[in-house]
Amino acid sequence: MQPPHAHAHAWPGGGATTPPGAWGPGRPGGLLTPPPPAPARSLARRLLAPGATLAGVAAAFAYVGTVDPNEPGHYPVCPLLRFTGLYCPGCGGLRSAHAFVHGDLPAALGANALAVVGYGLFGVLMVVWLIRVIRGVPMRLAVSPVLWWGIGAVLALFTLVRNLPFGSALAP
């Protein structure tokens, strides 16, 4: 099938090769005229997504801070730990969050140091997001494949080290 510009075709309401409402040849400005910008959203509407995200995370931390994961029966056991005896990268994450909520940073780091790093990264990301929202700049988070591979490598290395005798300090 040929594209519309490959043959002469008259679109109803448009130019010889341009469908109605499109921008390009036959429209004011030619090929380089972008569509008009969307109307600006109010600050309250822009704050909706980061506010909802913060509310959800705060609710999750409040729940984990209230319901102690150190007491058996409140949360399910990690299936990897249960069936293999190996700690996954998330093992100790709930105990870490509980200690973090209660202000016990050494206990949080002892339960899952990588989770505590994640809390910090989340906090920085939220501050950047909120600043951009207040300034009216859209938040675009494009993570390259190299970064995803790097994150995977860190998780794999953390999992390996915390399951070896010399890395027992990283075990929950």
End-to-end distance:
61 Å
> Main beta sheet, described?
none
Task: Give Rg in angstroms.
Answer: 26 Å
Q: How many DSSP helices? A: 6
Helix and strand succession? Answer: HHHHHH
The share of residues in extended strands comes to under 5%
Percent helix, as a range, is 40-55%
Runs in which pLDDT lies below 50 for 5 or more consecutive residues are none
Estimate the global geometry from the Cα principal axes.
Answer: globular
Secondary-structure content class: mainly alpha
Number of strands: 0
Average pLDDT taken over every residue: 84
Textual characterization of the structure:
The chain has helices at residues 43-46, 48-66, 79-84, 93-101, 105-135, 145-162. Helix 2 (48-66) crosses helix 4. The protein has 172 residues and is mainly alpha-helical. The longest helix is centred in the last third of the chain and has 31 residues, at 105-135. The mean pLDDT is 84.
Brief digest:
The chain has helices at 43-46, 48-66, 79-84, 93-101, 105-135, 145-162.
List keywords for this structure.
172 residues; globular; 51% helix; mainly alpha; single chain
Layout of helices and strands:
Elements: H1 43-46, H2 48-66, H3 79-84, H4 93-101, H5 105-135, H6 145-162
